[in-house]
Structures are given as C-alpha cells and as structure tokens.
Amino acid sequence: MRPLSLCLALLAGPVAACGPDTDCVIGDRTYRLYLPEGHNGEEIGAFFFAHGYRGSAAGAMRNGSLRSLADELGMAFVALKSAGEDWNLAHRPREPQQEEAREYDYAAAVIEDVATRVPLARDRLVVTGFSAGGMMTWTLACGMSESFAGFIPMSGTFWAPVPESCPTPPANIVHIHGTEDPVVPIKGRPIGETSQGDVTTVIYRYTAEGGFNDPSQTEAPGGLSCTETANPDGKILDLCLFTGGHSFSTERLRHGIDRVLGAS
C-alpha cells in the first residue's frame, strides 16, 4: 500500500516550484527535475536517473553531460534520490534478510508528481542508473515494467539471491557493464553478509522467463559490444559490454535510450 505521506503529498494542492537546483518534495522524499532547452510546454518523455551509493539527486544534476543529453533527446531529466545512503532494495547489506524492495511507491509518486509539472508522454519514460543505481533500475524493471518504456541498468544488478522471476511482464532492457569492473564485477562480490548478484545469471533468467531469443552480435557507440535479443511481443533484452572498469558514459546511455524507445 502506498504510504499515507506520499498520497497526501499528491493531493496537497498547488505544486511548489522546483528544478535542477531545488528539491522537488513528495512526502519525506525528494527528487530534482531538469527540462530540456527550448521546452515550450509540449508533451515530452523523460529519463529517470538513479544515483550510486552515497550519491544524490543534486550530484546527478551537476553532471553537465546528463543535462546535455536531455537537451539532445528533448526529454526531461529526473534525478531520483534514495531515502538514505543507498536504495532500499531486497537483500541489501544493511538488511540481508529483507526479501522485498521498498522503492516502488516512491518511483510511482515521482512519476505522478512530475506529471503535475510538465505534460508527460507516458510511452517515453525510461529508467536508468549507475552502480547502486543500476540495482535500483533492475528492481524497477522487475516490479514496475508496465510504468516505463524501458530500462538501462549500468554497472549494477540485484543483490543476491537474484529473483527467480519477476511479478510484472518482460520489459525492454539494455544492460551495460564493463568487463573488468572491480567494484561491481559481472559475477558480483561479497559485501558484508550479502553479495552482489551475478549479471550472467540475471540475464539468463530474464531471457528464459521473457522468451527472448535469436541473439545477434552488434557493435555500438562507446566501445560497446552487444548481444541483442527480442521476444515474440517485440520486447528487447540486450547485454552490452565494454572493455574497462566501473565507469559511466552518456554516449553508452544514449545508445540504451535509443534502443528501448525504438522498441517501445
């Protein structure tokens, strides 16, 4: 059930001004919002960005390349903010026995709050995130696939044990990861009493559950080497690897956004 504080926030009346330099407040949570240059009030899509461990929405907004990407795509840039240092996900290090993510209500409330500030094209909403934000992205893909056109997790996946299946239908997903990542290795690594999930296992399970097949190999911007698949419903599942470590690139993100919006 959605927390009462978030529900009241959505019914509270006039919307308080906020933007890239000022928090948008929903209940006891916040996010930040950037609109592309030249936006004149028309309906637009948006990409929702989840920060890494100990990151912030303000920090994401200071990334000029992300704002430039929003300008290039003509999309709103929504920077999400965890309630604490990290996202409240299943099997996280501080709560390894926690079996359910507790971020779905927040994500849903952000969508509705953004929609009070700018006309949203609901079929052009994308979630992405880096590192711990990639874990948040996979979690939303698994539990909220019908709320977004697609998902681009970057250098992050579920905490172990990874889900056997997802409660919502298969989504458009482009997973991006460095082959030599020491922070979030493809096979994962132990942290405290839990462990990062194995990306290969996640892709294998999602492939089987979603009926993705007919793999093809392609090269993409940012040094990406991608295995692209699709299912009978036209959804895509791509695994795009680059030679390197724990690094973020808007060029790679642009490829992911183009792919998922092209498939939606």
Condensed summary:
The chain is built from seven helices and twelve strands. It is α/β, with parallel strands linked by helices and 264 residues long.
Describe the structure.
The radius of gyration is 17 Å and the shape is globular. Mean pLDDT is 94; it is low at 1-13. It has a 10-stranded mixed beta sheet, sandwiched between helices. A two-stranded antiparallel sheet has the order 8-9. Helix content is 28%, strand content 26%. The protein has helices at 4-10, 57-61, 64-73, 104-117, 132-143, 199-210, 250-263, and strands at 24-26, 29-34, 44-50, 76-80, 120-130, 150-154, 173-178, 190-191, 194-195, 213-220, 224-230, 236-242. β5, α5 and β6 (150-154) form a beta-alpha-beta unit. The chain has one domain (4-12, 23-263): 3-Layer(aba) Sandwich (Rossmann fold), CATH 3.40.50.1820. The longest helix is centred in the middle third of the chain and has 14 residues, at 104-117. The protein starts with a helix and ends with a helix. The chain is an alpha/beta fold and 264 residues long.
